[in-house]
Design goal:
mainly alpha, Rhomboid-like fold, 2 domains, two-stranded antiparallel ribbon
């Protein structure tokens, strides 16, 4: 099995978390490789413009798919590295409490909610009025913080051991993160912090509704289950066809078999069973089973 086949098999048989990481990483590599060719040709790289989430309502209306594509898109190496490490770490813990469908639901709907917070914030607050047309959002951060907040709501006392800090409960990690995002709104990454707050809001709402027996991500879960069934390899069944035999041919074959078996029985009567050849013994054995 070559490397490509191994990756395909790992994607097909892996968990929802594995697939999310593969999709993010695959898109990152594809975008960066294509960007190299544009760079060498001296042309401007156009695809980011069509995949990142614009803050402007008019532009978003003409590119509605960006509300989904932005959360799988990264361009900076450190950006995707920290997001995927955080996603892997938190995703592993999340799957210890919930099923894979809920992980997909929180990731997607948390990212969408984060995107809506970003768009709404840039259009509602006067401070962003001069930059709203040129602002773009990309990255999985809002989706990841939705997972973190959901974990903090469901298992607030789950303890993580952080380097140089020691044991810290999940509720404090989420609370500190949200506080930093609020403070960060006045920084150079205001849009990203607004999106993070949207993701955190979704994670909180999702778990609160789940406690009441309402799964807000049920539709996403059903779609994920359907796609998973399509990805599972189905065993190949070999079907052979044989031409039907008519009555005349059937009777002819039966008479041939009868003649052969009579000849074998005569030989046994004259010379004994040991005088039969291997083929004759096999014919006798087969005829005895019919």
């Amino acid at each position: 099995m070559n490397l490509l086949e191994e990756i395909k098999e790992s994607f097909r048989e892996g968990s929802a978390l594995t697939r999310l990481i593969y999709i993010n990483l695959g898109i990152f590599l594809l975008v960066r490789i294509v960007n190299v060719f544009y760079f060498l040709s001296g042309s401007e790289f156009p695809f980011l413009e069509w995949l990142t989430l614009p803050a402007d309502f008019g532009m978003l209306a003409s590119r509605p798919w960006t509300l989904l594509t932005y959360m799988f898109l990264h361009f900076g190496f450190l950006h995707i590295l920290f997001n995927l490490l955080w996603l892997y770490w938190m995703g592993q813990i999340f799957l210890g409490y919930f099923d894979q469908g809920k992980l997909i639901a929180i990731y997607l709907l948390g990212g969408i909610t984060g995107g809506l917070f970003y768009v709404a914030g840039y259009n509602l607050f006067p401070v962003f009025s001069e930059i709203v047309v040129d602002s773009r959002l990309l990255g999985a951060s809002a989706s990841v913080i939705a997972i973190v907040t959901a974990l903090a709501m469901h298992a607030p006392n789950h303890t993580l051991y952080l380097m140089f800090i020691g044991p810290v409960k999940m509720k404090y990690i989420a609370l500190f993160s949200v506080l930093m995002y609020v403070i960060g709104i006045s920084s150079t990454n205001a849009g990203g912090n607004l999106a993070h707050l949207g993701g955190a809001f979704w994670g909180m709402v999702y778990i609160l509704q789940l406690r009441r027996g309402v799964d807000l991500g049920k539709g996403i879960t059903h779609i994920f289950s359907f796609l998973k069934k399509q990805l599972v390899s189905k065993p190949k069944v070999k079907v052979s066809y044989r031409k039907p035999v008519d009555d005349i041919e059937y009777n002819r074959m039966k008479n041939q078999d009868k003649t052969r078996i009579n000849g074998i029985l005569d030989k046994i009567g004259k010379s004994g069973y040991d005088s039969l050849t291997k083929e004759e013994k096999e014919i006798l054995f087969r005829m005895g089973k019919e």
